[in-house]
Design brief:
Elements (H helix, E strand, L loop, with lengths): L1 E5 L5 E6 L2 H4 L5 H15 L58 H18 L2 E4 L8 H11 L4 E4 L6 H7 L5 E4 L6 H6 L2 E5 H10 L2
Parallel strand pairs: 1-3, 3-6, 4-5, 4-6
Antiparallel strand pairs: 1-2
Helix pairs in contact: 2-3, 4-5
Length: 205
């Protein structure tokens, strides 16, 4: 399939052939959901922690005699039944990540690219270069109508362009190896350079 290529100033720069295996699939929500869930779970810190009975700051002395009080039998104030006592079976530091095969992750990325293509939210640009001026790039982005966009470049991102894009709200820039399902779906518009298309095709074959 062919798609027009534009420049950042809005001018035309020819067209490019897109691989049907990457951009022509029928997007499946279940595949995208699994990959996004895998990404977000791996990003979760899992550092939540509560104090158990052995960790709360209380004396271990028996609080009152075993018999004769008319009340329940207790050993220490650190028991979970008491206020400020230890927490029973509370959260402890752990990893929330789980495994997902490399083949499935590649499939998810293909479906994410195809989803943007089907939505009509895929834009191909000639190259992502800039003089390093945020104001100039912000005007170009506004003129193109990109409000929440992700720009994927080739093997590396132009330093001046990355610097200019850094302070523009709603604009993210990634190299082709950083392209991922969550970031693609999170933004309204997906912008890929010609170098980015070549790099993605090589990566996802």
């Amino acid at each position: 399939m062919k798609l027009d290529v534009i420049k950042l100033d809005g001018g035309k720069a020819g067209s490019v052939d897109l691989d049907e295996a990457l951009f022509g699939l029928e997007p499946r929500a279940d595949i995208l959901h699994r990959v996004v869930r895998w990404q977000r779970n791996n990003a979760q810190q899992g550092t939540h922690k509560v104090k158990t009975r052995s960790e709360v700051s209380y004396s271990t002395k028996k609080i009152y005699r075993q018999k004769g009080t008319g009340g329940a039998r207790h050993g220490a104030r650190s028991a979970p039944i008491f206020r400020k006592g230890g927490i029973y079976k509370g959260p402890t530091p752990r990893s929330h990540g789980h495994e997902l095969t490399k083949k499935f992750r590649k499939l998810g990325l293909r479906h994410a690219l195809s989803a943007k293509m089907k939505e009509g939210a895929l834009v191909i640009i000639d190259e992502a270069t800039s003089a390093g001026k945020t104001a100039a790039l912000a005007k170009q982005v506004k003129d193109l109508g990109w409000k929440r966009a992700l720009i994927i470049d080739g093997a590396s991102v132009n330093e001046d362009f990355a610097q200019a894009a850094r302070n523009i709200e709603g604009l993210d820039v990634l190299p082709s190896m950083g392209a991922n399902v969550y970031d693609i779906l999170k933004r309204d518009t997906l912008v890929i350079t010609k170098a980015g298309i070549e790099a993605l095709e090589a990566r996802l074959k």
